[in-house]
Amino acid sequence: MTPPLVGRRRILLVRACAIVIVLVVTLAAVEVEIRLLVGLPRPERLPLARVIPHPELGWTMMPGDLHYTYDIPVQLNALGYRGPAVSAKAATEYRIVALGDSHVYGQGVADADLATALIERHYRQPPASCDVRVINLGVRAYSINQEYAVLRRLGPALAPDLVLLFFYLNDFELVDVHRRWERFKHLDWYTFDLGAKPAGDVMRWWTIRQIARTSALINWAHDAWFAWTARDDFEEAALRGHLDQRMIDDVHEYLVRFVALADELNTRFTVVVVPHAAQIRREFPQNRYQRTITEMAGRLRTSVIDPLPVFRRDYAEHKRWPVIPFDGHYDAAGQRLLATGVLEHLATEWPEPRCPARRRGA
Hints:
- The chain is α/β, with parallel strands linked by helices.
- It has one domain: SGNH hydrolase (Rossmann fold), CATH 3.40.50.1110.
- The protein is built from 13 helices and 10 strands.
- The chain has helices spanning about 5-35, 100-105, 115-125, 145-160, 175-185, 200-215, 215-230, 235-240, 245-265, 280, 290-300, 310-320, 330-350; strands spanning about 50-55, 60, 65-70, 70-75, 95-100, 130-140, 160-165, 190, 270-275, 305.
- Strands 6-5-7-9-10 form a 5-stranded parallel sheet, with helices on both faces. It has a 3-stranded antiparallel sheet with strand order 2-1-8. Strands 3-4 form a two-stranded antiparallel sheet.
- It starts with a helix and ends in a 13-residue tail after the last helix.
């Protein structure tokens, strides 16, 4: 090999190494910058949540199941929900039942930091020291039709004095319960996140995804691509004022059913409008989300709690977005703000240190 050829190859090798080094350093710098701006990706641990196919609900969580929500351990009670065991209602107890999706279940949040736990703790500690119990019936990905079915099934036995329906924007889209049941009815159980039992190729792909999820850059790129390609994303469209009348009518129908069921159970019924995380930092002039629910509930003479002002007040003061990085669900701080919004509203009805008052005949 001639000396000039050796020299050219050496120059090309040096240039290639320099390009690789610059690329690695640049990617590392971008990774660090995204972690500083957005936060660290949360790791997921095994076992994942197991669910059971159900003909009326689509799926239910497995009673007593031990699983992780990200890296937080969760032990479900005998009813198949988060929180301590539910005992018989005491004569002096004021019982609140909370219905909702993953915002009530508490994706990525420890039991002690759930909004339901914070509400209960607020009333049970001095100066109020009230005999209040808040039962969490939140299930990931549930919609209003499933939440109504849960109250229909469990309401008589639980005998709540107050039902809080935590309504989220995607509840305008009803879950096709029959389709979900038909898809999974042949299984005794499956993991919700995988849509299958954790074995074979399913777990191999899950492992690969978890390796990729450790990178903030990859998570950010994934979310950016999804946001760019999902032009018909329902939640974004709804915040821009595009709510289909059929969806509004569906929700109205279930609110009517909730009101009737609450009367049947001799309980109070209140809707909590869970704000979309994007609303905390941005105004959506054409948004009809909160207004639509408030107007429908008003016609039904049903109370509505809107915690959005609490979230915005906190953001204005601390400039911290209370959301799990690369997820969209509220973190422990967000759950605290959700609880604060509920408590501030209830305080107008039960000024402290008064305890919640049960309905006559309850």
